[in-house]
From TrEMBL:
This is Transmembrane and immunoglobulin domain-containing protein, putative. PANTHER family: DEFECTIVE PROBOSCIS EXTENSION RESPONSE 19, ISOFORM A, DEFECTIVE PROBOSCIS EXTENSION RESPONSE DPR -RELATED. It comes from the Eukaryota. The keyword tRNA processing does not apply. Residues 72-172 form the Ig-like domain. SMART domains: IG (SM00409), IGc2 (SM00408). GO terms for cellular component: neuron projection membrane. The gene is 8237262. It holds the Pfam family Ig_3.
Amino acid sequence: MNELLYVVVVVACVSWIRREDYHLLTVGLTTYSSDERFLVEHARHLQSWGLQIKFVTPNDAGIYECQVSTHPPTSIFVKLKVIEASAEITGAPDLYIKSGSTLRIVCSLKQNTETPVYVFWYHNDRMINYDKERVSVSNDKSISVLQIYEADKTDSGNYSCVPSNAKQANVNVHVLNGEKPAAMQHGGRNNCSLITGHLFLICWCCCLLPIIMPITYYEQEREFIQILLNDFNYNRKMIFYRFFGYTR
């Protein structure tokens, strides 16, 4: 006589909730948010559930709850802080230079974690990176330098430093005629920055205890943060921060 062996498997359901407005983002593998930037990923062999946020913005900052439907429910709270990198131009908002000399504007990156793919320079809304006559642009990791040789009155106006992954910076340039200008150009550095990025949060489902983790996420194109929570010997927790390259 054959015996039938029945195995009952209980799988805890994992939900991700944005605590600010108690908005239910995901339940299990299903996304309930109308915002298509929120996705869930599940690695069955690791018993991990991931919340991925694409194109992170400062509005995404706040506390997120990973809730497991055990009895009683178990939650992990993740505090997300988003820092937006920004561009700065030394001497802004105004630079003064004598006619006939070399105009040199320095744009440097602040709070960035990756070199921008490009930095475009604009003069009165016209891109000048590829102007061969009198214009030179050099980039070195977190710094971009614009130089215009033998500057004249036509070079006066608004200049913008626009990195691929950063908020732009602007400066007004005044080219002065005469031997004693009111002010001369100031040299220095500033800060260029980054915007969009991807955030990946992972919740492990074994032996969870309530915990609050502060996380600072630096917005950046082609990068996301993965937060791993693991349990060792049922009585202590380890938190690992791992950074991965990511290309859209």
